[in-house]
Amino acid sequence: MLLVVLSAALFGAATPATKSLLSELTPFQLAGLLYLGAALGILPVALRSAGLRLPARTDRRNRLRLAGAVATGGIAGPVLLLLGLRAAAATSVSLWLNLEVVATALLGVLIFREHFRLQGWLGIAAALAGAVILSVPAGSAGLAAGGLVLLACVCWGIDNHLTALIDGITASQSTFWKGVVAGTTNLALGLLLAPLDADPLTVGSAVFVGTWAYGVSIALYITAAHALGATRAQVAFASAPFFGVVVSVLALGEPLTIEILVAGILMFGGIALLTRERHAHAHEHGILEHEHAHRHDDGHHAHDHGEPRAGVWHTHRHRHEAVVHAHPHWPDLHHRHGHERD
Questions:
Q1: For residues 192 and 194, what is the distance between their CA atoms, to the nearest angstrom?
Q2: % residues pLDDT > 90 (the chain)
Q3: Following DSSP, what letter does each residue of 304-341 receive, concatenated?
Q4: Which terminal Cβ of the chain has fewer Cβ within 10 Å, N or C?
Q5: Residue 232 and residue 252: Cα distance in Å, rounded?
Q6: Three-state SS for 65?
Q7: Beta-strand (E) ranges in the chain?
Q8: Nearest to 156 by CA among 208, 96, 90, 204
Q9: How confident is the model over 233-244, as a mean pLDDT?
Q10: How far apart are CA 307 and CA 254, in angstroms?
Q11: Alpha-carbon distance 62 to 173, whole Å?
Q12: How far apart are CA 247 and CA 95, in angstroms?
């Protein structure tokens, strides 16, 4: 739990840190340097877990999913976020980043035919209400900045779903290649669109922020999620915007207004409702063979290794036999089914 909170603190601090760097770097240049830093930060984890080379058996569909995740989450998302950050206060942008959870959830409903109970819809409504409260007082500029951050969150929501479907590529490999490809692409575009006027200290600071706020943060989150499980880790990581607000107020001297406090309460309350959302129904799993990190106490991995591995995370290619069962679940690698809404 300490690891995931530290991960959230590093990621949350990235918003006010990048706000100060935007005075000397364009959004494309800064996005490129941040993601190259992220690749540097995740490199030790990738080398230690599965190496950098993608498995030779990675099929075309999974390569396309990885390419889509790079395009949306690595290239488009960061640039949209930084464009919004350039026009708005870091405190507001920190809280708007809660919309990533909302966007991911709504995409699950619209694309994967999952559904919410009343609790889930109330969570979405609360989070969106908080976002509106932050946007309206600033007029059209605030609405435009909020819209850019919302688009960035939609990009990351698409990235989340595509990444969840990738089979046979570890999270550290995916993050490393996303950082290298997206970082190089955005930096190249940034240098084509404008000269690099920043001094070496600023460039180094951008890479440093990316290394810790994206690369090391992700590495800590992966480690924590393996021990805690994805759901508990995600709930703890939802504290990241709180750290962003605190750093923005203390380091940048931004005011802590009543609008920020009310919006924060609404958005954190909404995210809490969303993370508690579950649904259960009878569903069928067909025969499936794939590779991903798993453990044997989740109800989906009963294959025998000849040794006890119930609570140990490990990765190898394995086969699922056909089964019909019912249990509370999220849309994930094993639950991408459509069903009648009830």
A1: 6
A2: 38
A3: --SS--TT--EEEEEEE--EEEEEEE-SSTT-------
A4: C
A5: 31
A6: helix
A7: 279-285, 288-294, 314-320, 323-329
A8: 96
A9: 79
A10: 56
A11: 13
A12: 12
Give backbone dihedrals phi and psi of 338, rounded to 5 degrees, phi first: -100, 150
CA 163/CA 65 separation, integer angstroms = 7
Residue of 265 and 311 predicted with greater confidence: 265
Distance, in Å, from the CA atom of 132 to the CA atom of 142, rounded to the nearest integer, reads: 9
The per-residue b/e assignment along 230-259, b for 16 or more CB within 10 angstroms, e otherwise, is eeebbbbbbbbbbbbbbbbbeeeebeeeeb
pLDDT in tens, 30-51: 999 999 999 999 999 888 876 7
Give residue 330's pLDDT. Answer: 52
Give the C-alpha separation, 252 to 20, whole Å: 8
The answer to whether residues 335 and 164 touch, using CB atoms and an 8 Å cutoff, is no
Strand partners, 293: 315
Encoded amino acid at 283, one letter:
H
Closest C-alpha among 291, 286, 315, 320 to residue 303: 320
pTM confidence score? 0.78
Query: Quick one: average pLDDT of 154-167?
Result: 85
Closest CA to 289 of 318, 324, 252: 318
Cβ proximity of 246 and 289 under 8 Å: no
Q: What does the pLDDT read at residue 151? A: 96
Q: Measured between alpha carbons, how far is 239 from 146 in angstroms, rounded to an integer?
A: 20
Q: Which amino acid is at 56?
A: A
Q: What is the mean pLDDT of residues 66-91?
A: 94
What tokens were used for 127?
């989070």
Query: 152: part of which helix (H) or strand (E)?
Result: helix 139-165
The domain locations on the chain are 2-276, 283-329
Rounded mean pLDDT, 335-340: 46
pLDDT at 332: 54
How many residues are there in the chain? 342
CA dihedral 332, 334, 338, 341 (to 10 degrees): -70
Measured distance between the N- and C-terminal CA atoms of the chain, rounded to whole angstroms: 36
Amino acid at 223: T
